[in-house]
Amino acid sequence: MPDPTILLDRLEFGESLRWHDDRLWIANWGKAEIVAVDINGLSEIKREVPTTFPFSIGWLHDGRLLVIAGREAVLLRQETDGSLVTHADLSPFGSVFNELVVEGRGYSYVNGGGSDPMTDQAFAAGIVVLDTPDGSAR
């Protein structure tokens, strides 16, 4: 087995690693940006994210980027012109969301809704919210 190769460093709290379009995509929480890096270590900031952490990424079946804005409790969608719009309002289900997984049909699953670990509030159990490709959540 070959020695490991560092492809990217100087991340500030890298999370939500995803393989997409032959690159590794990373939610760089500390800088509120999404970075993609190829197997040669060439990296590119794909977009800045107007949120505090946590946030996570995924893609709809048509290739549009989804970003969960954790403390804002919204699932954002990047349009073809590059703008971010609200795909789903998650606030009826909780106040903080963390992770996003999108399956092949475009349905996404977002976890959260429990207590915010960055505060002193008492522990509360979390939930998983199902979001459909048209943006409705349950």
- Low-confidence runs: none
Structural class: mainly beta
Helix content: under 10%
Q: If you average the pLDDT, what whole number results?
A: 88
Largest sheet: 4 strands, antiparallel
CATH superfamily: YVTN repeat-like/Quinoprotein amine dehydrogenase
Following the backbone from N to C, one meets helices and strands in this order, namely EEEEEEEEEEE
Question: What is the element layout, followed by pairings?
Answer:
Blueprint: E1 14-20, E2 23-28, E3 33-37, E4 43-48, E5 55-59, E6 65-69, E7 74-78, E8 84-89, E9 97-102, E10 108-112, E11 127-131
Antiparallel strand pairs: 1-2, 2-3, 3-4, 5-6, 6-7, 7-8, 9-10, 10-11
In short:
With 138 residues, the chain is mostly beta strands. The protein is 0% helix and 44% strand. It has a single domain (14-131), classed as 7 Propeller (Methylamine Dehydrogenase, Chain H), CATH 2.130.10.
Protein architecture, described:
- The protein is mainly beta and about 140 residues long.
- It has one domain (about 15-130): YVTN repeat-like/Quinoprotein amine dehydrogenase (Methylamine Dehydrogenase, Chain H, 7 Propeller).
- It has no helices and eleven strands.
- The model has no long low-confidence stretch (mean pLDDT about 90).
Could you list some keywords that capture this structure?
138 residues; mainly beta; Methylamine Dehydrogenase, Chain H; four-stranded antiparallel β-sheet; 11 strands
